[in-house]
Amino acid sequence: MGNDRVVVLTGAGGGIGSAVAARFLDHGDMVIATDSSQESLRSLAEQHRGSGKLETVVADVTVESEVAAVMALARERSARVDILINCAGYFPVQPFAEISAEIWRRVVDINLTGVFLTIRHALPLMRGRGWGRIINFGSGTFFKGTPFQSHYIAAKAGVIGLSRSLATELGPENITVNVVTPGLTETEAVKRTMSADFLAKRRAERPLKRAEVAEDLVGAVFFLASPDADFITGQIINVDGGSAMH
Questions:
Q1: Alpha-carbon distances of 156 from 82, 152, 246, rounded to whole Å
Q2: Residues 6+ apart with CB under 8 A from 31
Q3: Catalytic site includes residue 152
Q4: Which of 66, 98, 119, 142 has the most crowded CB, counting CB atoms within 10 A?
Q5: Where are the alpha helices (DSSP H) in 28-83?
Q6: What CA–CA distance (Å, rounded) separates 126 from 1?
Q7: Which helix (H) or strand (E) holds 62?
Q8: Which residues contact 155 (CB under 8 A, 6 or more apart)?
């Protein structure tokens, strides 16, 4: 694959998603970027104004008709999807006893059902060409059993299981499915959710004692999308500064 790949990226307006989008655009790939926030997508488009390779579309990954509209745009623009990156996420912090059924379903819908829906609607544009990449975002919390995020961790565990099953199912078509698990990445959303003292404590606990930033995730994602990863599928690349070793 050259530098004319078609990438569909969810959660593209977030800190990690926007950094991933920038890396593929810099490579010359077409990026169809989707997010639930129109404002975030507008900011992303402004950053890459003039690239000619970025398409943005507002969509909620939990709404099947909106996911279908994203893939319809991909079909219209290029009739294919080479790389699907599921980066959309929602990570509330709350004690288990305070999690209502409604919140549980919302967290699982965004973090797991959204992944199912995007893959389901992207596959018809990926199959039949003998090459494809699906890269899903998990979370380093899966390895550590981080408290107060049981709904989020359960959903991310589901992403890992889904990815491994699909890696086996889609392998004969040369479509790989892998997972990147970030550690606690200090995006603006995380800084709004977690205290400065908590973030400092987490930095001190990991072997690489600095803040993890969105750009730290980009290399692993780009590698998994490259020919260098042709024989890698069903795997987890954990990018967390050594916080969890497995």
A1: 24, 6, 17
A2: 7, 9, 12, 21, 24, 25, 53, 54, 55
A3: yes
A4: 142
A5: 38-47, 64-77
A6: 14
A7: none
A8: 107, 108, 110, 111, 112
Instruction: Give me the residue spans of the domains in the chain.
Output: 6-238
**Marked catalytic residue, from 152, 166, 185, 216:** 152
Question: Mean pLDDT, to the nearest integer, of 174-186?
Answer: 96
Q: What is the pLDDT of residue 1?
A: 59
Closest CA to 15 of 155, 186, 134, 139: 186
Instruction: Look up tokens 């079909």; give the residue.
Output: 75
With a CB cutoff of 8 Å and minimum separation 6, the contacts of 93 are 148, 149, 193, 194
* 6-238 fold: Rossmann fold (3.40.50)
CA 38 to chain centre: 18
Task: Give every CB contact of residue 103 below 8 A, 6+ residues apart in sequence.
Answer: 92, 94, 151
Task: Output the pTM of the full model.
Answer: 0.95
What residues does 179 pair with on adjacent strands?
Answer: 136, 236
* C-alpha atoms less than 13 angstroms from C-alpha of 2 in its C-beta half-sphere: 1
191 pLDDT above the threshold of 90: no
Please state, in angstroms and rounded to a whole number, the distance separating the CA atoms of residues 30 and 42. Answer: 17
Query: In the chain, helix, strand, coil percent, each to 5?
Result: 50, 15, 35
> What CA–CA distance (Å, rounded) separates 221 from 179?
9
pLDDT for position 195: 87
Single-letter residue type at 204: A
In whole angstroms, what separates CA 162 from the centre of its chain? 14
E strands of 183-245, at which residues? 236-239
